[in-house]
Design a protein that fits this description.
heterodimer; A: mainly alpha; MetI-like fold; 11 helices; elongated; B: mainly alpha; 13 helices
Chain lengths: 292, 314
Amino acid sequence: MSEIVIASPDAPRGTLLRTALRSPSFVIGALITLLFIAMALLSFVWTPYPFAAQDIPHKLRGLSAEHWFGTDQYGRDVFSQILVGARTSISVALIAVGLGIGVGVPLGLWAAARRGSLLDEIIMRLNDLVFAFPALLIAILITSVFGPSATNAIIAIGIFNIPVFARLTRAAALSLWTRDFILAARVAGKGAVRISLEHILPNILNTLVVQITIQFSLGILAEAALAYVGLGAQPPTPSWGKMLADAQTLISLAPHLALIPGLCIVFTVLGLNLVGDGLRDIFDPRLQRSRR
Amino acid sequence: MSSYLLGRLASLILSLIVASIVIFLVLEVVPGDPAQFMLGLNASPDTLAALREQLGLNAPAWTRYITWVLGMLHGDLGISYTYRTPVSELVLQRLGVSLPLALLSLFLTMLIAFPAGILAAARRNSKTDLVVTGITQLGVAVPNFWFAMLLVLVFSVSLRWFTAGGFPGWDQGFWLGLRALTLPAIALALPQASILARVMRSSLLDTLEEDYIRTARAHGLSRSATLWRHAVRNALIPVLTIIGLQFAFLLAGGIIIENVFFLPGLGRLIFQGITQRDLIVVKSVVMLLVFAVILVNFLVDLSYILVDPRLRRR
C-alpha cells in the first residue's frame, strides 16, 4: 500500500506499450475501465430511454429485451440510469483526484526541494493531521455542513487525496534529489523550481500514475458511499450509490435493482485496481521478476 | 527511547489541538441556528434570544472554543440540544454498540487476513497464492454497504438466520446482541481483510528476500521455522500500522454500516446530530473519534518498540 516505486530515469520508453500488452492484469483492467468510460461518454449522446422517464405500469420489471437491466420502482429504465450513473461516478472521482494532484503534487515537490526546512516540516505535519481524521466521517460532515451536492462530494473526497499525493511526491522526489543528474542540473545553475518541474516531475510520473489509478478507484467507492447516504449527487441525477440506497427496501422484491449497480461499482473499481497493479509491474520490472 | 517517546507525545498533543480547532471552525460556519432548530419556526424572538443566551451562543467564538475544550478535558462533552441529556452519556451508550462492532470486525479481519496473507506469501505463485490474490483483489473492490445488503438478502431474507437490522440491547442477552452484530461485522471485515491480507502478503514477500532469511536457512533452520521465527515477525511492522488505521476506520467508518443495519452506534449518533443540527453532539463525538484515531496511531508507534528491539536501544 505504502510501497514506493522509483522509476529509473533511463527506462526505455518505446517498448512500454508492448510490455503493457503482455501484462494480463493491465489488459483486463484497461478493458474494463475503457468499457465504463465508454458507457459514461455514451450517456451524453444516447440512452435507451430518458433516464428519468417514469412508467409506473411497467415498474419493477426484471431483465428483458426492452429493458436490458429491468425497471425500478417508478418504471424507470435501469440501464439508462446505469449509463448516466457511470458519468456521475467517473466525473466526481476524476475531479476529486485532480484536486488531490493539483494541490498535493506541488506541495510534495516544494517540501522535497526544501527538505529539512521548517516549511517541509509544516507541510508534512499538516499531511499527518489530515490522515488522522476519519476520512468518510469528515466527508459526511463537509457535505452535510455545506449541503449535499456532487460538488461538495468532490471537495470532501478531494481533500483526502491531497496528503496522499503530497507524501508520495515528496518521498519519490527526495530520493531523486540525491542523484548525480540533479546535482549536474544544479551545477548548471538551474533553480529549485526548474529542477522540480524539468527533472523531478517527469521522473516521478510513473509512481504518480500508479497512485492515480488507486485513488481514482477509492474515489469511486467514496462517491458511492456518500451517494448511498444521500450526500452525493442529488436527484434526479442518477448515481450508482443512490440507486443502491433506493434498492435497499426492495431487495427481496427486485434483487436486480441492488445487484446491477453494485456489480458496476465492483467492476469499475476492480478494473482500475488491475490497471494500477499492471502499471506497477510494467514500470518496475525488478518488482515483477520477484513477485511473479 | 525516551526522546522517541517524547517526540511522539508532543506531536500527539499538537495534532489534537489543531484537530479541535479545525472541527470547531468547520461547525462554526454551519448554516442554521440551533436555537431556531430546537424551538421551531414559530418561536418568539424573545424565547429565541433567551435560549441562545442559555446555550452560550452569544459569547465570542474563542470563548466558546475554550469552554468546549476545557469541558472536554473534564469529561464534559456538553448537553445534546435534541436529547437534552449529557453527550457523554449518549456516547457511552452508543459506544456499547460501536466498540464491540469494531472489535468483532477487527477480530474477523485478522482471522481471515493473517492465514490468507501468510499462506499466499509462503507458497508464492502457487494456486493458493493465485486464489488469495484474486479474492482479495475482488474484496478490495466491494463497497461494504453493498456487501451488507447482499448478506441481508441471503442470511436474513432467504435463510432467516439473522435479523435484517436493529439492536436488541445487551440487557436482552449477550448472544442476541452478538447475533445482531454478526452480519454488520462481516460486512465491515471483508474489504478490510482483503486489504490486510494483501499487506501481509507483500510485506512477508519483501522480508523473505532479506539476507538474514537466507542466512537462517543456511544455518540449517527449517523452512517453517525460518518463516515463523524470523520472517513473519519482521513482516509485522507494516501490518501493525495498517491494523491501527483499520481499527480507527472501523470505529468511525461503521457510520454507513450502522445505517444499513439500523444500529444505534456512534456513527448514527453523528448522522442524526447532523440532520437535526445538534451541533454539540457532532462536534464532541467527531472530536472523540479523531482523538481515538490519533491515540490508536500513537499506540501503534509505541508497539513498534515491542516488535522492533532496535528502537528500544535508542
